[in-house]
């Protein structure tokens, strides 16, 4: 606590010193005040709109402001302000990005033009909270792909551009310090960041070589409070509950990142660059849980026999992303040659940790629950007494995942005249090599009585760590992780090794893609056309292990497939400020690595397995829209879009069919026939600088996306013995997503109040005939406020308040009344100082 309060003191002291320094020299203060300017909201929006306006693709952009900082804490939260974008949150922080209603695994992320692989073992999606916002100069969400772009996204590609020395004139540097306060845990956390860039003269050139560097470090202590049923409702008996669990999360999250970039422009005909980025994200999590399992399903307020348990999960997880991109461009008369070599590596490392330590608390009579959406226990005082719980089992795990992508791209373009109209022919190719490996090791410690442990050693009273601070009600004792580790530390791990869990979850996958394209751009009066064809050939290999009633066997799958992907783009300039866009494109996305997993487990008449033979998802996309630009930071636009998706993937139970005819359960993944997605995207932004003061500082931004989806799935219904079909919405697709921003700024002060809304969406499918147990995420509205004040032309103080309305995360089972998961985070407040010279 001393260090945390010390940081607050440091921030406030620095602020006081800055103000005092200004007062000591009044004359200088007056002079400086005349030149103070907050380069903030309007300038950032205006830069973004200029980039959108000239783009050949339909895309949305977020630009860093004059101090090279995005307007939000991490990349995911900055992107969510754009039309058609929604964010999946974890522990209250934005993580994964959905584009136009399509889930994060159906979109791609690139850094400086090269693909970012996912550090998580089962996913393709990249959690963008790994990237600190200070390392980023701009973010683009590209929604229509031209043939010279990778075709690996159905919703869009999130492209991250890091800082370049050519983003500023001459010497630029900035440094920030920040203290954030988490109301839920009452913890204060530090953050420091900085960036510097400059240009130098090499050879006969002037300011032709640029160097830019950025660093960021943040340590955030926070947590959340949770209660969840996991969907364990018995609707056949009138909405009765089988079990529920209360969870308390205590998390320490450390982010560190750095980038070092070089640009060289020896003459007007050539340019070269090297972009490097490293980001490290470390989570230390302690999760205490207390659960009630009812002997018979109970309705709210009804009492019966209950089994009580407590559990601990304590782990440390480190995710790293490295990206290195070298490229350049050279003009030879009417020809332009460009190329790029990229290397990216993502990893997730979870050293040996407590994956679950479970304590049995015995049976309680006359117990139950109340409140169906946030279940609370009705139970005797003994439920909260640590001495009533005995250690039953410890799950011990370690895991390491690596995902590496290497690519080489070469493009050649030639400008030419076609009957008096400017045209360009462009062609090229790209090779990429991706390898993903996962290694999980698991141990299960149980039957402690047979190992010679005494009842006293196994009693939670001896392994207790204080009382859990739980906002949702009374919780009881916490569990000591160090005590658990000490208890099992003297045992031989080899005696408790879980071979099935360890071997089945190990895999190695290789994905090699060879691509080539040809496209032509033609300008005819006020029209601009782009037509082309892209080819992508994929070689896929997956190696793993299967387990059949405890017997292991190696598995290997090799596949080749090809895609021809045409595209046509058109842009028409109605007048100097208004343009119409249209695009017809085709794109492809490979299934996630979890869906393609080669491992399987067969235990008697039950089976669980991945499906390496899944087909890639293919989409035909139509986009049509109009954009009108209005002065500084002003625009209004409307776009309609339609996607016809083939081979979408869903989870299913194939028991009773084919090779699984005699099985009671056989859970895997299958391709659906087709899915449809269509919608309307509206956006508006305006700086009211023509109004009289103080209204000339007013800035308004709003966007909303209305979308609908439809997909048919089928599966075997064991109860009736027939195949059934049903229609669903695409998972992760919200019918309505919207943003509203009200801002005001002048030369010294900048204010912003923003709200982000996302309607409910389907999260997880139940069995084919059990729609009542589908899981849905409820609608969410997050409200944030930020303020910046320029003390001098170089020094700025800032204040931010996030999640002002204390929005929760709620997953329900079939109907809004029935909990699957409820979690609260509380608001966060930040105070910071930024010194900038440019």
From TrEMBL:
<dbReference type="InterPro" id="IPR012910">
    <property type="entry name" value="Plug_dom"/>
</dbReference>
<keyword id="KW-0675">Receptor</keyword>
<keyword id="KW-0813">Transport</keyword>
<keyword id="KW-0812">Transmembrane</keyword>
<feature type="signal peptide">
    <location>
        <begin position="1"/>
        <end position="26"/>
    </location>
</feature>
<feature type="domain" description="TonB-dependent receptor-like beta-barrel">
    <location>
        <begin position="366"/>
        <end position="804"/>
    </location>
</feature>
<comment type="similarity">
    <text>Belongs to the TonB-dependent receptor family.</text>
</comment>
<keyword id="KW-0798">TonB box</keyword>
<dbReference type="GO" id="GO:0009279">
    <property type="term" value="C:cell outer membrane"/>
</dbReference>
<dbReference type="InterPro" id="IPR000531">
    <property type="entry name" value="Beta-barrel_TonB"/>
</dbReference>
<dbReference type="InterPro" id="IPR037066">
    <property type="entry name" value="Plug_dom_sf"/>
</dbReference>
<dbReference type="Pfam" id="PF07715">
    <property type="entry name" value="Plug"/>
</dbReference>
<feature type="domain" description="TonB-dependent receptor plug">
    <location>
        <begin position="57"/>
        <end position="157"/>
    </location>
</feature>
<keyword id="KW-0732">Signal</keyword>
<dbReference type="InterPro" id="IPR039426">
    <property type="entry name" value="TonB-dep_rcpt-like"/>
</dbReference>
<keyword id="KW-0998">Cell outer membrane</keyword>
<dbReference type="InterPro" id="IPR036942">
    <property type="entry name" value="Beta-barrel_TonB_sf"/>
</dbReference>
<dbReference type="Pfam" id="PF00593">
    <property type="entry name" value="TonB_dep_Rec_b-barrel"/>
</dbReference>
<protein>
    <submittedName>
        <fullName>TonB-dependent receptor</fullName>
    </submittedName>
</protein>
<keyword id="KW-0472">Membrane</keyword>
<dbReference type="InterPro" id="IPR010104">
    <property type="entry name" value="TonB_rcpt_bac"/>
</dbReference>
<keyword id="KW-1134">Transmembrane beta strand</keyword>
């Amino acid at each position: 606590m001393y260090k945390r309060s010390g940081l607050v003191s440091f921030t406030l002291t620095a602020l006081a010193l800055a103000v005092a320094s200004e007062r000591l020299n009044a004359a200088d203060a007056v002079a400086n005040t005349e030149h103070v300017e907050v380069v903030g909201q309007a300038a950032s929006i205006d830069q973004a709109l200029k980039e959108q306006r000239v783009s050949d693709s339909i895309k949305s952009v977020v630009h860093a402001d004059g101090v090279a900082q995005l307007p939000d804490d991490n990349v995911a939260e900055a992107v969510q302000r754009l039309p058609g974008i929604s964010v999946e949150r974890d522990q209250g922080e934005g993580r994964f990005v959905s584009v136009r209603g399509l889930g994060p695994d159906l979109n791609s992320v690139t850094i400086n033009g090269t693909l970012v692989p996912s550090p998580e073992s089962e996913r393709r999606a990249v959690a963008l909270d790994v990237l600190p916002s200070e390392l980023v100069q701009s973010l683009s969400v590209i929604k229509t792909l031209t043939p010279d772009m990778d075709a690996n996204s159905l919703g869009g590609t999130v492209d991250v551009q890091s800082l370049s020395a050519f983003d500023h004139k001459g010497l630029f540097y900035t440094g920030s310090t920040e203290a954030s306060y988490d109301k839920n845990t009452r913890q204060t956390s530090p953050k420091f960041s900085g960036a510097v860039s400059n240009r130098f003269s090499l050879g006969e050139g002037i300011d032709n070589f640029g160097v830019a560097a950025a660093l960021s470090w943040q340590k955030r202590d926070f947590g959340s409070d949770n209660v969840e049923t996991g969907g364990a409702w018995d609707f056949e008996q009138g909405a009765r509950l089988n079990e529920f669990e209360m969870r308390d999360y205590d998390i320490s999250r450390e982010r560190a990142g750095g980038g070092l970039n070089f640009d060289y422009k020896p003459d007007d005909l050539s340019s070269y660059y090297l972009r490097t980025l490293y980001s490290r994200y470390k989570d230390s999590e302690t999760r205490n849980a207390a659960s009630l399992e009812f002997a018979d399903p109970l309705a709210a307020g009804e009492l019966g026999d209950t089994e009580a348990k407590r559990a601990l999960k304590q782990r440390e997880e480190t995710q790293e992303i490295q990206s290195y991109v070298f490229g350049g461009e050279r003009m030879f008369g009417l020809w332009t040659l460009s190329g790029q070599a990229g290397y990216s590596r993502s990893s997730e490392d979870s050293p040996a940790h407590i994956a679950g330590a479970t304590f049995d608390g015995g049976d309680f009579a006359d117990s139950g629950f109340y409140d169906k959406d946030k279940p609370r226990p009705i139970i005797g005082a003994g439920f909260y007494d640590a001495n009533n719980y005995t250690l039953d089992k410890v799950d011990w795990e370690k895991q390491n995942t690596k995902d590496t992508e290497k690519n080489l791209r070469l493009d050649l373009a030639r400008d030419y005249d076609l009957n008096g109209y400017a045209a360009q022919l462009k062609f090229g190719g790209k090779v990429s090599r991706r390898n993903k490996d996962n290694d999980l090791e698991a141990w299960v410690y149980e039957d402690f009585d047979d190992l010679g442990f005494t009842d006293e050693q196994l009693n939670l009273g001896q392994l207790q760590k204080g009382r859990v601070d739980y906002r949702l009600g009374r919780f009881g004792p916490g569990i000591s992780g160090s005590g658990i580790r000490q208890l099992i530390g003297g045992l031989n791990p080899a005696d408790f090794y879980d071979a099935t869990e360890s071997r089945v979850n190990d895999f190695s996958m290789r994905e090699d893609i060879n691509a080539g394209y040809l496209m032509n751009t033609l300008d005819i009066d006020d029209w601009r056309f782009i037509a082309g064809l892209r080819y992508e050939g994929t070689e896929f290999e997956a190696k793993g292990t299967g387990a059949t009633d405890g017997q292991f066997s190696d598995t290997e799958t090799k596949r080749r497939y090809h895609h021809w992907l045409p595209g046509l783009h058109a842009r028409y300039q109605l007048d100097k400020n208004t343009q119409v866009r249209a695009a017809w494109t085709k794109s492809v996305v490979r299934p996630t690595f979890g869906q393609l997993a080669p491992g399987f487990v067969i235990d008697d008449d039950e089976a669980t397995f991945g499906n390496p033979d899944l087909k890639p998802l293919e989409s035909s996309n139509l986009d049509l829209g109009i954009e009108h630009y209005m002065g500084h930071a002003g625009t209004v636009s409307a776009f309609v879009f339609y996607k016809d998706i083939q081979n979408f993937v869903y989870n299913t139970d194939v028991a009773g069919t084919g090779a699984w005819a005699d099985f009671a359960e056989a859970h895997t993944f299958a391709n659906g026939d087709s899915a449809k997605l269509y919608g309307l995207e509206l956006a508006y932004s305006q700086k009211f600088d023509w109004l009289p003061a103080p209204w000339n500082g007013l800035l308004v931004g709003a966007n909303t996306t209305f979308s609908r989806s439809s997909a048919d799935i089928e599966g075997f219904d064991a109860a009736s013995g027939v195949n059934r079909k049903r229609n669903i919405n695409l998972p992760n697709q919200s019918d309505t997503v919207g943003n509203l921003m009200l801002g005001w700024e002048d030369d010294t002060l900048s204010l912003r109040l923003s709200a982000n809304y996302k309607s409910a969406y389907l999260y997880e499918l139940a069995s084919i005939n059990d729609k009542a147990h589908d899981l849905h995420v409820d609608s969410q509205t997050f409200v944030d406020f930020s303020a910046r004040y320029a003390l001098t032309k170089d020094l700025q103080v800032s204040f931010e308040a996030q999640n002002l309305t204390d929005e929760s995360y709620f997953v329900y089972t079939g109907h809004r009344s029935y909990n699957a998961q409820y979690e609260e985070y509380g608001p966060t407040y930040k105070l910071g100082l930024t010194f900038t010279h440019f």
